[in-house]
Structure formats: C-alpha cells, structure tokens
Amino acid sequence: MARNPLAGAFAKYVMEARVTDAEPVTASMRRIRLATDAPIAFPYRPGQHIRVQLNDPLSLHGIMRPADTLRTYTIWDLAPDRRALELRAHLYDGDGIGLRWAREAAPGDAVTFWWPQGDFFTSDDAPFHLFAGDETAAAAFGPMLRALGRDARVLGVLESESAEHDLPMPGPHELRRAHRHGAPAASSKTLLSAVAGLELPGNGGAAYVAGEARTCRLIRDFLVRERNWPRKSIKVKPFWTPGKRGLH
Ligand SMILES: Cc1cc2nc3c(=O)[nH]c(=O)nc-3n(C[C@H](O)[C@H](O)[C@H](O)COP(=O)(O)OP(=O)(O)OC[C@H]3O[C@@H](n4cnc5c(N)ncnc54)[C@H](O)[C@@H]3O)c2cc1C
Fold this sequence. Notes:
The protein has two domains: 113 residues, Elongation Factor Tu (Ef-tu), domain 3 (Beta Barrel), CATH 2.40.30.10; 112 residues, Rossmann fold (3-Layer(aba) Sandwich). 22% of the residues lie in helices and 31% in strands. The protein is built from six helices and twelve strands. The mean pLDDT is 94. The site of flavin-adenine dinucleotide (FAD) has 31 residues, from β4, β6, α3, α4 and β12.
C-alpha cells in the first residue's frame, strides 16, 4: 500500500493504542481505557487532552472534511507506568462521530490518538480554585482536582441532567452539584444561577470554566461583571456547542 507522504512528518505526535476496558460510569458517561503500544513519553499536565483519530486528517477524505477527523477527550488518568490512559466520554443525545465512537468502543478496538495539548490545567499559586461546567467539563475537572494538593481551597459547581448523570469525582475536594432536569445545557441558566449562589472568597482566585461554549461565556461574563474578577484569572475552555463540530 502507498504510504501517505505526510504521515512521516506527523508520526512523532501520534500514538497507537488498544481499548482494554469500556463500561458505563454514569447513566450517560463511559469509562474508556486505552493501553498504548509504547510508553507514553509526552509531557503531560492533568487537564490536558488527546485527540482521538476517527478518520485520518492527512488522507484525502480528511483534507476535504477536516471536521470529521479528530475528537477531543481529556485524559482522566495516566497510568504511573505510562502505558495506559483513561477517558470519560459523555454520551449525549445526538449522532456525532465522537459520540458513535464513545458509545461503541469495545475491548480490542485499535485507536490512534494525537498527543496531549492545551493549557487547561490548574494554576500553581492561586489562593483558591473555582470550577464550573457540565458533564463534559467534569471529565476534565476530575484530573485537575486530583492534581491540587489536599490543602488547596476549592469550590465550584458541576452541572448535569440529574443525579444519575453525576460523574463521581476524586477526593478530597467537593464541588456542588446542579441538575438541569430537562432545561437546556446550552446557555445554561441552571449553571449560572448555581455559580451566582456560591459564596466566593473574593475575586483573587483562579477560575476554570468548561463545557458548552455559550454557557462558558455566561459564567465568565458573570464573574467579570458581577463579581469583579480579572479576565486573566479565568481559564475558559469551550468543549462543544450547538451547530459546531469537533471543537478542540
Ligand atoms: C479540550 C476539550 C476537552 C474535552 N474533553 C472531553 C472529555 O473528556 N469527555 C467528553 O465527553 N467530552 C470532552 N470534550 C467534548 C468532546 O470533544 C465533544 O463532545 C465531541 O466533539 C463530541 O464529538 P461528536 O462528533 O459526537 O460531536 P461534534 O461533531 O463535536 O458536535 C456535533 C453536535 O453535537 C452536539 N454535541 C456535541 N457534544 C455534545 C455534548 N457533550 N452534549 C450535548 N451535545 C453535544 C452539538 O449540538 C454539536 O453541535 C472535550 C472537548 C474539548 C474541546
């Protein structure tokens, strides 16, 4: 078979893996564990993500339809021997290629993924840490919370559809839960009013806001306008939004 001439140039950013476990952890979330062929040598900070290759972006199909190639998932856990990683994948009501992969992934499946990227990780020196987001954001907040020391001051809200959709989070830090019960996750008033109800210890902390893009904007604007937060203290990472495919 003819080799893709572009593939060599990108090979160092790509890893091959196999699914070893895939099972539900909530009513709409699956745990997917990938074991890699070689030790994972890339630099990594908890909160960073990989991009799962569902169609080769360097193929003709991929070049013609770049939005149908890679899908982004945060590394929930990296094995200490760096030969496996886990993801938490949200099964929403829809039909995206990422959703199909997340729903159908089964032990033995081959998976190609691109190295972790992103600056969505916790600040080292903030006096307190504020988290706000939906089910997809919870998949990123888990590893970020785990990375904070036991003594870190942490608060925030995790929104989901209802209690059976609450992703269990690693201790010891507790975040408040808020449930939509059928209300929209986009431009979510549920999350906004839960954040507005928090007693914040001032505006000097670091905030991490992720999930649906318009909800992220609402929360950031609330913190800036109503709580006087400096914009630069708020890390915002939109994970998905109606009408757009494959945010990264
Ligand atoms: C940095 C980053 C990290 C992420 N980490 C995670 C993670 O760890 N776990 C995880 O589950 N997701 C994560 N996401 C979100 C995930 O990448 C998207 O949900 C994924 O793109 C879905 O792919 P898709 O092909 O099914 O839908 P897409 O083609 O991306 O989107 C098509 C449409 O489907 C709908 N849609 C997509 N995702 C959702 C959703 N979650 N809820 C409701 N409707 C949706 C929207 O209407 C969207 O317009 C992350 C995203 C980013 C950018």
